Amino acid sequence: MSGTRPSRAHIVAALTSAVLLLLIFGGYYDYKPGRGARFHPRIDLSQPQVLSQIHSKPESTNQLVPQAQIGSDIDLGHCSPTILPFADTQTSSELSNDVIPNIVHYVWLLNGHGDFSVDFKLFISAYSAWLYFRPDTIYVHTDASAEQWEKAETSGNEATRWMLSIPNVVHHWIKPPKYTLSCREIKRIEHVSDFVRTQQLYHYGGIYMDADVLPLRDVRKLRESGFSNIVGIEDPGKINNGFMMSKPRSALMSILMSEQHRVFDNEWLTHSVELLSTIAYRLQAVPGEVMILGVKAFAPSSWRVDAVEALFNPHDDTETSIPKEGKDELPKIPIGSQDTIDYWVHRNWEGRAEWEIDYSSSYVIHAFDGMAESYWPERVNFEYVMARQSNLARAVYPAIKHAVDAGIIDRKPKAKVI
Length: 418
Description:
Shape: globular
Number of helices: 15
């Protein structure tokens, strides 16, 4: 055998061939001291259970197809940690022509329950969204079957039947994820929702809302602002992930969808508020990518005990009453300089209770409730709202009164008009 040493050209060719083989067979090695090398296969983009839609632009948001979420079919016994590649984003021309779609997304999972059932909280949110946003569609992403949905339309509790009678509310079946692509089990149903909402916003764009987010006015001007994503700050300075607006296939949602699988640790905030805040604050320097609004816009309340009590606590010494037509409506958002000055000058209104909070600078209220004896869902009911003895009740009263007048709610308030 020859003892000739390989030339530099031969070495380079061999290394290049090895790299190409790794790319072709779909994987990579990483090395950590004390652990050795570990092979990570790339995600198989041909597997419909994993990434069936990641690189495809939906043809329409009018009718969504049943959808398995990323991680829903992972077998933990044969799971190898993988990296979710950043998904395709819109081109510059697409971004300049598009507005944020006027569709609303909720995630409502059965969590072991046999029937599809919602509470009054979700009804308030969905009806307010329909009334103020006038969305093309309100999607409920759920693991409830079409049969369970249809049964709930006729046999569900009051709130469920009211909810499903709202125009444009549509069932969208999804298969929830069980594990992340880093092979971590997703243990809490709230965390499952975090993954589902990101994937839906990436695919279809629109407005995502938690069930305890209560719309107060239209967000059309925000949707048409040209930004690819619109989010808001919550106390104490983090980005709220309970109300997000996005164009389809935005860079922010692409990054968030990938990074959630990498950082998830079953802690409450790591993969959600903390990660979203890091990404959004980083990307706000990118022209047109993300608008970050102040705390009053989407989260004028908070998890703090004093804020929860100020929002929910009823003031029993205040007389139960029904305001005259239009008296309880928020002032319209100004569209010109003089309108803006008038908006400021007339910021106080007559007849305001001493305890009443001014929500005229808010689009929605994220009604956090972290109390030991929670208000949601037992203590906030139809009678609570119609009594108008709390800030939350006065904020959502116009929408619920509208639902009564429209025949969606088949009850009548018992109070005198003032």
